Amino acid sequence: MLFKRVPSGFGLAGAFFLTILVLGWGRGTALAQAPNPVQPCGTVPAPPSVFSYIENLRREGLLEPVYGTENNASVIYLPLQLHLLANNNGSGRYPLSTFATILCELNQKFRSTGIQFYWKGNPNLINNSTWYNLPNFGTVDQINTQYNVAGSINVYFLSLSAMSLCGFAYYPGTGSPSQTNRQGAIYMALACSNPGNSTLAHEMGHFLNLPHPFDQTSSNPQATWAERVTRNPNETAPRLPSNCATAGDRFCDTPADFRDARWNCPNGGGAAVDINNDAFQPLGRLYMSYANDACQDSFTVEQKATMRATVTSTGPRSYLLTPAMPAYDSTVGMPSLLEPLDSTYGWPLHYLRFRWKSVPGATAYVLRIRWLGTTVEDFWVNDTTFLYNGSGQLLSNRVYRWSVMALNPRAVCGVFAPERLLGIASNAVHVSSVEGCPGDSLGMDVLNSEFTGLRSLRLKLDFPTGMLRLTGWNSLAAQAAGLQVQAYPPVGSALYTDSLILNWTSASPVSWNAGVLMRFGLVWPSGVNGPSTGPVLGWDTLNSRCQALVGQGQVLPLLCYGGRIRNSGGCYPLSGRLIYDNSAGTPLRGTMVELRDTTLQIRAFGLTDSLGSFGWNNLGPLALLPSWTYAVPWGGVNATDALGISRAFASLVTLSPLRFKAADVNGNGAVNNTDALLVNRRSAGMVGSFAGGDWVDDNPGPWMAGVTGVPGTIRALCKGDVNGSYQPQGTP
Fold this sequence. Notes:
Structural class: alpha+beta
CATH class of the largest domain: Alpha Beta
Number of strands: 36
């Protein structure tokens, strides 16, 4: 490869150094195939500051540390901000699903270095055809200045085919913007960013101060200043001694290299000798070499030490350490897909709703839609529901595959859930699917695709016999004014619902937009168990009950698809009763009960009833931590309680475990006269609160749903009420 210098002053006042890496297309099918093979291109050697930095590390004895791994505390986590460029119309963008895969691979490649990468913020989507097809370096500064995120490694994915490049990166201390915490970026060509490629690892090496092994050698490998093959510092004349610490890449554990073009390992690309007439034997395993991707699998010890030093508190990229990465789970599970159900068809293109279960530890999801094995659309979703409104690449009357992958900034090695089939059709009516447990109240939607020139609609929806009760409905389509719904048996009946008839008529043709036609409420009574696949709601097409009329009474071909109510799985009951620990066992009515999992996510909540009872029937098999918000104020505490605390401290009386907790009003784990003094002071109005709150109970959790007797009856006390004299809400 030939070298040429980037013109001085490019993009910034004065010269800056830009590494332009030229690599082959790598293995596998390219995401976006360049029109021509990669051509040799210009690059400049690493700037003197990089070589000085490496030489200083050697002098200070810092090139042979003990490296951390993912299994200990020495791992350094670095934030990465992803920028995905596309044409003005959004086409050509790098798939989000592939980004997760290559970030996972990047972490695997860097695992032995003790450096790991996490994504800092949601991917930044940029639609700009000029930038996407970057013809030269003239706009790189502009892109960096506008979009670089402070305190991050900014990585841009774009075409680069016009420049016949695989990628380029900035060394520390170079590039725009000039602010230290936004300096430089990495640019990646789509065609070199497939899973299995090593380009990103190579570019990241440059970003963290690693030169090419052939740096300052390839242009004239027999020059006196070129790196020599020998590692012997005591060669005798006429041979020259080793200069590995002051020539080439300055690393003595990388063999001298002269190959600045792609080559096949172990020894492809020709041969050359140095000034000592020693044959070069480059190491194709190194990510920083130009060997083909299939050869590359490692960094050397000195390379690892340099990269780690670069991102320590005194290194040139120390800004990447602040703030530290928040605590994230190292792995996340696979989502359970909810809607659309597998192999269901007739979904309206302009109101296509995807839903899946929340995965513990996940902070985002990637929804992927494929056709014939090719990703057509993928979306970054921060929730568990995504509504596709027809504004993208999906087409009507086509069957697609869809799936979801869960991830968080650290956990990027997840897998997609098994794909499901869905069909998109015109002139369709579809019932959504829901998930629940017996005893749940459920809401289901009737969805419709776009209709033009509609005059009437008559649909009959059949419910599974003896399975469900209808509680009501709401018409949500403005165009469907006058929609009539009749249930059999009627709403409010104690009998199970058999069917629902929808009628709509207009004197003049009307066009309906896609969306939710109506929403109806259902109750799945406790003790009613459906088939393993769940109760199925079906359209009755007999006697033309599923039909639409257009024009002069012409029947419109109408596709009607039913939904399903599925058991969510792991529907376990949990119930208990909350009472006050007095002689009457007063129910604590109206108390808010919240159940949180170990990540503090709320899993269930509700108010206690007149008996102090609470419960749910659809909880998962999780450890659940309760919290209470009492509807009655603190009270019932006076000097008598203070005396009781003093007597307990003097071992004159013995308190039950719960009343001991109530007596420990300062929350130090002991009961003494200090607690008695605080009770006297609060009962006299001299203090307004106790440490740790006003209430204690005898069953703080965790609880497991589905376990007999859990939680059972729970007794609570106001802090300080050691004799249980308080009568909250009155005696029943």
